[in-house]
Amino acid sequence: MEDKTEDKRIVVAIDGPAGAGKSTVARAVAERIGVPYLDTGALYRAIALKLHEEHIMPDDGERVSERLKDLRLEVGRGTISADGVDVTAEIRSALVDGIVSAYAARPEVRDALTGLQRAQAARGLVADGRDMGTVVFPDAELKIFLTADAEERARRRYKERLERGEEADYDDILKQVKERDRYDMTREIAPLRPAQGCIIIDSSDMSAEEAADAVASLAVEFERQRKR
Ligand code: CDP
Q1: Which long-range contacts does 91-95 make (Cβ < 8 Å, 24+ apart)?
Q2: For a pocket test of ligand 1, which of 110, 130, 158, 183 has the largest count of ligand atoms closer than 8 A to its C-beta?
Q3: 101 CA to middle of ligand 1, Å?
Q4: Residue 212 has pLDDT above 90, yes or no
Q5: Which residue has the least CA distance to atom 8 on ligand 1?
Q6: Could you read off the pLDDT of 169-187 as tens digits, one per residue?
């Protein structure tokens, strides 16, 4: 078969608030079009976890940037490790949910991760996060803003927690989802907002699979157009 290396460079940027279904959609799309998937939230979560464990506060810019110089993040297929320790499960904890946005608002943290994310895109990718279409990949071929009602998003998070065998309180989760949205949308650097030229999808009344199908169809169609 002809090697269409160029075709592999498609970048799909998916942004949206917590619990909108971004990772399910991004994973499915990546598989359908055959490019890697990058969960950028996991990178922010791993940094937050690590720095918190080491008592480095988000507003201590000097210590944050000093530590980031030698913090080693490794992303595998659905796994992430920090300084050689697998933190895949730990980064999904309620603790990390509560602290991640404060770290993610810091310029030192964002600068470090923006470069790292761009470096992954050479062979094309589907990346989900908060600033994929606005800052990291403004030239992405396809930009999606995936959203849903806060109540529906909190219900999904609640279900996820129970399925993992963890304790969960719906009202607490709803409060935290709203707080995190506010934090992510109003921060000075790279606030969460729909990127120019993005397609906005409201998944409130869709299952994760339906939303994934909708975005995957767009990506596949885009690929078809490109190959013409
Ligand atoms: O899965 P969920 O949507 O709850 O969160 P996530 O994608 O794992 O991201 C966790 C947090 O990291 C977000 O609330 C943001 O504060 C931050 N984040 C960011 O600032 N920029 C990104 N590209 C991805 C995540």
Answers
A1: 91/42, 91/45, 91/46, 91/48, 91/49, 92/45, 92/164, 94/161, 94/166, 94/176, 95/49, 95/52
A2: 130
A3: 7
A4: no
A5: 41
A6: 999 999 999 999 999 999 9
For residues 14 and 211, is the Cβ–Cβ distance under 8 A? no
So what's the pLDDT on residue 228? 75
* Distance (Å) from CA 129 to ligand 1 centroid: 6
Q: Give the integer Cα–Cα distance in Å for 38 and 114.
A: 12
* C-beta contacts of 105-109 below 8 A and 24+ residues apart: 105/58, 105/183, 105/187, 105/188, 105/189, 106/58, 106/59, 106/61, 106/64, 107/61, 107/189, 108/61, 108/64, 108/65, 108/68, 109/44, 109/47, 109/58, 109/64, 109/68
Residue 15 beta carbon below 6 angstroms from any ligand 1 atom? no
Look-up of token digits 């397609």: 199
Concatenating the DSSP letter of every residue in 46-95 gives: HHHHHHHHTT--TT-HHHHHHHHHH--EEE-SS-EEETTEE-TTGGGSHH
pLDDT at position 220: 85
Predicted structure pTM score: 0.92
> Does ligand 1 lie within 6 Å of residue 25's CB atom?
no
